[in-house]
């Protein structure tokens, strides 16, 4: 069976770092599915299209090239906000989930991270992780990242953003963020990335 590793969880829980380390360890391609929603948002913003028109948003989603996704280009706060709005549109999700499944099904396996990988995109994945951490811890990590890059930030504003994003992702009708019934939970509130990586390896290796 192809080794598909599904990683879900809220914003800033450490999924991305963990996904990249696991992909390198197992020699598998990695797809950060959040970037597909962000690329759709950026395409709408760049084209000056209305942000609440589902038909136009779905057309944009259908044209996303998975091989050209770049987090540096897509990291802006405004893009993240619009991404979480277009992510609530069912026909946008249908288009992006189809592309994500093709990615997962090509080759000997893949690592995908997002919000609905274990529940919707790859429900048959042999390894599923749900990575989470307290909202304060996640907001603190985001804050430290911005400050380390020489930027300035307000902790309370970041915490409110994290909580608003969680509420939107967990509260939407289509594919809400939640752990799959068979997911292995990893709470990184009190765990560094290396400890989380080791815990993920023990879980995955036991399933190979
Ligand atoms: O993870 P990231 O912040 O880049 O994701 C941007 C937005 O895309 C999230 O807030 C979420 O609403 C949406 N998303 C999603 N399903 C995924 C990945 C991301 O709905 N599998």
UniProtKB/TrEMBL annotation:
Localization, UniProt: Cytoplasm
A GO MF term: ATP binding
GO biological process: pyrimidine nucleotide metabolic process
Annotated ATP binding sites: 9-17
EC number per UniProt: 2.7.4.25
Highest taxon listed in the record's lineage: Bacteria
Residue stretches making up the Cytidylate kinase domain: 5-204
Gene3D superfamilies: P-loop containing nucleotide triphosphate hydrolases
A Pfam family matched in the record: Cytidylate_kin
Sections of the chain in a coiled coil: none
Reaction equations catalysed: dCMP + ATP = dCDP + ADP; CMP + ATP = CDP + ADP
InterPro entries reported for this sequence: Cytidylate_kin, Cytidylate_kinase_dom, P-loop_NTPase
Alphabetically ordered keywords of this record: ATP-binding, Cytoplasm, Kinase, Nucleotide-binding, Transferase
GO cellular component, one term: cytoplasm
HAMAP family per UniProt: Cytidyl_kinase_type1 (MF_00238)
Family: Belongs to the cytidylate kinase family. Type 1 subfamily.
NCBIfam families cross-referenced by the UniProt entry: cmk
Name this protein carries in UniProt: Cytidylate kinase
